[in-house]
Amino acid sequence: MNLKLVRVKQGKESTLSELYLNDQFVGYGLEDAVRKTKIKGSTAIPAGKYRLGLNTYGAMNARYKRKFPKIHRGMIEIMQIPNFKYVYIHIGNHIGDSSGCVLVGNKMALVDGDYEVYQSKKAYVALYEKLVEMMVNGEVWINIVPLSPAQGELLFLDKK
Predict the structure, then answer these.
(1) What are the φ and ψ backbone dihedral angles of 149, each rounded to 5 degrees?
(2) CB 144 within 8 A of CB 160
(3) SS3 per-residue string spanning the chain
(4) What are the tens digits of pLDDT across the range 28-58?
(5) Which pTM value belongs to this model?
(6) Do 57 and 42 contact (CB within 8 A), yes or no?
(7) Fewest CB within 10 A of the end CB: N or C in the chain?
(8) Angstrom distance (rounded) from CA 51 to CA 84
(9) Which of 33-37, 110-114, 130-134, 138-142 has the lowest mean pLDDT?
(10) Closest CA to 107 of 122, 129, 127
């Protein structure tokens, strides 16, 4: 079972992606800018394939356990990213919420040169429940597909 994050647009300091679960569109992803040199908490994850795991410790885990007591079983962590630690898939609307993680949303917009995602809580809960169920039954991977040079000129169609 696989989650695919396909990078489609680069803002001034943000990277917008489309998220696919087993090749079905499930929403948008938002990360910090793709950079050649990593800036802690402000750099997109390197393109590649990574295993997902559940992280059951830390302050963010405690907050999400209080926020989603009926479904939370741990933070979905993107594991073994070279030079990155504690990279989660979580709720947020703009890159200020990201800190190097992947934010999810059902809608997106370009605001003052950077991308934002909306309906994040709704998108997160739907994705979280599916991913946790898949993780219980076996390994789940995320494939992060890089931007291509031509994508800077793509016309964006909003998914309904």
Answers:
(1) -55, -35
(2) no
(3) CEEEEEEEEECCCEEEEEEEECCEEEEEEEEECCCCCCCCCCCCCCCEEEEEEEECCCHHHHHHHHHCCCCCCCEEEECCCCCCCCCEEECCCCHHHCCCCEEEECEEEEECCEEEEECHHHHHHHHHHHHHHHHHHCCCEEEEECCCHHHHHCCCCCCC
(4) 999 999 998 888 889 999 999 999 999 999 9
(5) 0.90
(6) no
(7) C
(8) 14
(9) 33-37
(10) 122
**CA torsion angle 62 77 21 107 (round to 10):** 60
Tokens of 96: 């200020």
**How far apart are the C-alpha atoms of 11 and 22, rounded to whole Å?**
27
Strand partners of residue 102: 89
Instruction: Please give the structure tokens belonging to residue 154.
Output: 């793509």
Q: How many CB atoms sit inside 10 A of residue 136's CB? A: 10
91 closest CA partner among 146, 158, 27: 27
CB 95, CB 105: distance < 8 Å: no
User: Contact 120/134 with Cβ under 8 angstroms?
Assistant: no
